[in-house]
């Protein structure tokens, strides 16, 4: 059975009350937020106290014979009724025995109902029970009721009975209704309730009342973006700012159109048993109250790379998160983050990369490195010279170009690529690096950044 909804009455503001007394209104609004009750732990159940602790010394229960302390206390107190003694063995072990089922949860067995609007968080649904009461001795007729939420940016109409007014509210009677609003803004909110009605003397009166509350952020999402070659890694840290545990039903990253995302998870322990039921009934992720955190890691790749298309300039927008959760008693919440941007990188009009390196390389024997040059602009570029630049540190290179020291490449059309081979030779054994492969544009007289180092293993024949 679901927990009953309850809430506290929010009295009108002093300005509204003064206005009400001045105009002597027959009607008045009463507002009660519909929210689930909370579980209030009983401190007495968390730490058991025995009256005999007052009379006994500190080491009475840690001695070799705890029953001697009980006999000593019995001789002092001399209870008239033997049944008046506290049951149990009178040891520390007895303090952990459960005498009532509620002791297991440290709860008194009752639910605590909120006495005010309480904490309202972004992404929740604000549900309110509104009652308009007639406290006068006259009947109010043709009552037009409006309820709306006012924020710093907008006014949202929740109820309007202008087209079908309430015919009458008798003396001592009331008219009740429920309104709901999905909270999508932070900061101050005002629930504005107004009534336009005919009083007992036929005078048309206008009653406004205001009920204010504030909306806080339930969680924060901190992101870090790292780019390694053609792969972008996005780390998201979600922190719980509420006083209740949050059970994350869904934390999905929706990538932008030019990206494809994959969530990276830690490998499961070998003892973990997978089953079809476990996959269908997946346990939600718990983020504890008051600052609990949980981290998510995503791998992003350009969608054009998988389709075999030339690499184009990507937008800085990576995507956004869709987050849904539930609290301890199942109240839902939902948030959508703003667009997450990647770190700005300098765009390159020409891209040079290594496509293939032989898996087996022998010392002092030539081998071919397959390279690819891509024009990422909408105009023809070239020609180019590819060569091995001298070492910046002055050290002698171990992997050298075999044959012509400069390789001439022709013009490259817009968004086109050309593949070519560079003959090289290694002079020493072990793990070595191919470094310093540089490209020079002849017409623009421009040097490009060298190709990133490539590690190889050089074996003996």
- Profile the largest sheet: 6 strands, mixed
SSE class: mainly beta
The CATH superfamily of the largest domain turns out to be: Immunoglobulins
Q: What's the average pLDDT?
A: 77
What would you call the shape? elongated
Query: Count of DSSP helices?
Result: 5
- DSSP helix fraction: under 10%
Would you spell out the secondary-structure blueprint of this structure?
Blueprint: E1 9-10, H1 14-23, E2 27-33, E3 38-39, H2 43-46, H3 66-77, E4 111-112, E5 120-121, E6 125-134, E7 140-150, E8 155-160, E9 166-169, E10 174-182, E11 187-198, E12 204-216, E13 219-228, E14 231-240, E15 246-255, E16 259-264, H4 276-280, E17 285-287, E18 293-302, H5 303-306, E19 317-326, E20 332-336, E21 340-341, E22 350-356, E23 361-362, E24 367-375, E25 384-388, E26 399-401, E27 406-409, E28 417-426, E29 430-434, E30 437-441, E31 446-447, E32 454-459
